[in-house]
C-alpha cells in the first residue's frame, strides 16, 4: 500500500478503489498488531500511520454518502 495517502488523493478515486485500499490497510494493520504482540515490530510509527489512513478512507467514503463531496474526476479537455 502506498504510504502517505492524502484525503485529496483519495477523493479522486472510485468507490471500488477505496474499498480495495481499505481492505489492504486493514490487512496491514492486522499484521502490524500481530508483530507488536509478538515483539517483532520494528516501526511503531507505522501503526499510527495505517490507522490514520483507514480513518481518511472512511471519512472520504462518508463524505460521499452524505453528499458533502462528490467524486472529482480529472477532466481530459486539454
UniProtKB/TrEMBL annotation:
Higher taxonomy: Bacteria, Bacillati, Actinomycetota, Actinomycetes, Streptosporangiales
The keyword Lipoprotein is annotated on this UniProt entry: no
Family, as annotated: Belongs to the universal ribosomal protein uL29 family.
Protein name, as recorded: Large ribosomal subunit protein uL29
Keywords (A to Z) from UniProt: Ribonucleoprotein, Ribosomal protein
Highest taxon, organism lineage: Bacteria
SUPFAM superfamilies the UniProt entry points to: Ribosomal protein L29 (L29p) (SSF46561)
GO BP: translation
Keyword Zinc: no
Molecular function via GO: structural constituent of ribosome
Pfam families per UniProt: Ribosomal_L29
PANTHER family in alphabetical order: 60S RIBOSOMAL PROTEIN L35/50S RIBOSOMAL PROTEIN L29, LARGE RIBOSOMAL SUBUNIT PROTEIN UL29C
InterPro entries attached to this UniProt entry: Ribosomal_protein_uL29, Ribosomal_uL29, Ribosomal_uL29_CS, Ribosomal_uL29_sf
UniProt GO cellular component terms: cytosolic large ribosomal subunit
Amino acid at each position: 500500500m502506498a504510504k502517505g495517502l492524502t484525503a485529496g488523493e483519495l477523493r479522486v478515486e472510485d468507490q471500488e478503489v477505496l474499498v480495495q485500499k481499505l481492505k489492504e490497510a486493514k490487512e496491514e494493520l492486522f499484521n502490524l498488531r500481530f508483530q507488536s504482540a509478538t515483539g517483532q515490530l520494528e516501526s511503531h510509527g507505522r501503526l499510527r500511520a495505517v490507522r490514520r489512513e483507514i480513518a481518511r478512507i472512511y471519512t472520504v467514503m462518508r463524505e460521499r454518502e452524505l453528499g458533502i463531496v462528490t467524486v472529482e474526476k480529472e477532466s481530459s479537455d486539454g
